[in-house]
Amino acid sequence: MNDRPKIKDIAVRLGVSAATVSRALSDSGLVAEPTLSRIRDLAREMNYRPNVSARNLRTKKAMAVLMVVRDVGNPFYLEILKGVEATARAAGYSVLMGNTENDSDREVEYFDMLRDGHADGMILMTGKLPEREGFLASVADAPIVVALEAIENAGFPHVLIDNQGAAQNAVEHLIGLGHKRIAHVSGPVPEIMSIHRRDGYRKAMAAAGLPIPDGYEPVGDYLLHTGQRLCHALFELPQPPTAIFVANDEMAFGVIHELRKLGLDVPADVSVVGFDDLFLSEAFYPPLTTVSQPRTEIGRTAMTMLLDILSGGLAARQPATMPTTLKIRGTTAPAPK
To answer: Would you tell me which of 15, 159, 206, 242 could form a disulfide with 302, CB atoms 3.0–4.6 Å apart?
Structure first.
């Protein structure tokens, strides 16, 4: 480790001051060409890497951010992480993943990491704060950006999608195919995201003058086996649906598995629409019709907002709302006659 090149080594080779090399390698904008290019070219040639520990001691920053999610095993988060990591890396930050599994104690531990300086900021994707008295007040001024799962009245900047509008559009697609008996397998209620997607379903049904029979709104938890179980319950009803709008793709996969077990064809007998557009959705057979979210851009936007806060900027007052697209594939078809 002793032969690791240092700033002063580059300075000696080029006959400039160590301060000039430091400014050039930190993108300060204070070093002009051609000196800037000469320093950067030699740094690459010498395989120079900054001493992160020393820099952190000087700046009193960890140069790391936390991305906290419910379930790190959910593939939904991977594309968001890519966007966060790419933007963070370009700014010299690393990204730490936090996995809460809906455990309040673990949630508190990640906030403690932020308060203790192990991370400089947080991108929060759990849709909630720990249920402890006064907790919001204790983190109100912390550098936190909330992504996708909104936390109402928290005051943090948000990156969101229009869940209600996207859900309404998905159900209108089924109505346009002639379906009248349309069920909705929701996410966990009363979580905000689940309520908004359910509201979009209800709004589309009401606008078309279609009733929602008892049992047509079973509440799930975003897991595959729950989709299977709730689908089975739907087809024990006196009049089962001909179409199902599901609050996420993982439960939609479970719904389709159960329909096949029941001897029903998708989409000839029952149409299914999911939400999220996981990478498996297109590889699934038949390919899943689903609401696509721009997950990489969501990650980039959330990290950019967090960098603005970390550099001393004001937190955005209005949420950044990202667009969605309904990807029409092979699991929807005209209603059976």
So the answer is: 159
